[in-house]
Amino acid sequence: MSFGFVLRYSQARIGAQAVAYRSLRSISSASAKFEEEVTTRIKDITDPATDKSIASIGILQGIKVKDNAIRVALDFFVPGYPYQKQIETAIRKNLEDVTWSKGLTIQVEEPKKFANLNTVAISQTTLTNVGHIIGVSSCKGGVGKSTVAANLAISLSRMGLRVGLLDADVYGPSLPILLPELSPVVQRSPTNPKNVLPLRAAHCPDLKMLSFGHVNPKSGAPGSGGKAAAVVRGPIATRILNQLLLATEWGDLDYLVVDMPPGTGDIQLTLSQSACISGAVIVTTPHTLSLVDAAKGVAMFEELKVPTLAVVENMSYFVGDDGKRYFPLAEEAGKTFSEAAVFCKAIAVAAAVRLCQQQQQDHRVDVAGPTHRTSIRTLVGTAAIGTAAAATAGKVEVVNESFQRLQDCPLHVLPIYTRDSDRDEASQSQSTATSDSTLPICITEPESEPAAVYSALARDVVLEVYKNQVSALLVPSVSYSKHRGVLLLRYFTASQAVEYAIPAQELRMRDPMTGKTRSLPSSAVEDAYPTAFDLKGHYGVSIVWSDGHFADIYPYDVLRDIALEVVQRKVN
Q1: Could you tell me where the DSSP H helices lie in 47-83?
Q2: Residues contacting residue 211 through CB under 8 Å, at least 6 positions apart
Q3: pTM
């Protein structure tokens, strides 16, 4: 081979490589140009739930153009987001006239799990694949809380979501009566004999569920073998709840609905601190005592940093033969409500609910059409809410951040409903012995008015969880930087991250409840540093110190205040 031929061959190969490089560079440049065009077309699409652009709140995760094919990545934060299809349709419409496009693929990211942020839950692994935990609470027995929880779980399941239902009422479990099981026998997990598998509902096989009534041999539930009451002390009831929650292999769930017992005691605190509850649904009736206790429940959850997602006023009205709605308890409840609830921080919210009902009675207001969904602010207006708050002036502080958020809390009104009301009295008395008499109405009469309310409630619960996810994660990440010698709290939102730092020895000297400096032996402070953290739901974190001390639980608010005080001291 001559030298000239080798030279010509090398030049030709180098020339081909140069052409290929220029071609790749032009392709890369064109792709970037195309991606910029796609971004411009869709970034300002409005999210209906927040009235913000999908780019600003983080729904739009990324855009990729390859070989003129468009791929758009989206993250809707929560499973079952009601406006997902609407946003996807808007994206397709805005890109339908792109002449160079050879196809569009919309990829929806898997929502991040939220219930397993607690270290105890992770160590037990049973909540690892649970997305969100929703508590249904009333603080007053007999208001229909268990019925609301069951119908809510069924409605979420019918939205195509993976749902579980936990009956946390150890003393009065209702789930075995409300929802018969496919098989009443609770089985041990084949992978971990210490855990059990949830049961399946006979009329809703996709719904996983478990109750103490299913496992207590004295409960009288099918398969339990007994009819006696559960007689246990508070600490035992707390241990039972932990086992039901953390020793049940729930598997992959989008939402776990928890039917909480009445009151504001051990079981509520245990549940709120054993796992991260995404929010609570408060159930009440129009009666004064029920509303007062519902207000206590709102205050309890606010103290534990659990947002209220919706308020359900059950047994609110009935429809007379004349077709009009009548509210039998409104006048009685309106007389003493403001005085009876002055001790509760959530009085303004509960009073506004009361005013909503009075307005419906006085003016025959049809609440938001067939779904009976509205918000406290929409029904009574800001002025009326201010009047409710003024009723407690000088007694409690009601104007705060929590109250401002609760003004827009969805309110759902359920009627006093008789199944098949056109049947005569004799046929009704004969039917009460049938199993269908206790089934949730979403199963027996899915087209009824109450079933429509429950469907709207399920949709609003998802929306409220979504809004909380978009605005901020209530639970920060907690870590210790050994290099810096500080405790780090990091709060993340869709658009920013905020970090707080507290020197370890500074934190060790502070009272965990007040944040004030306390007197400790020098041996307990010198060289002290955190060795482990145990998150307590939305409320705070328990810290294990290097000297072996582990009894302190620090609320997140206190930690943030200490960090800000440290920063302010450095500035001064």
Answers
A1: none
A2: 166, 167, 169, 173, 174, 175, 176, 221, 244
A3: 0.76
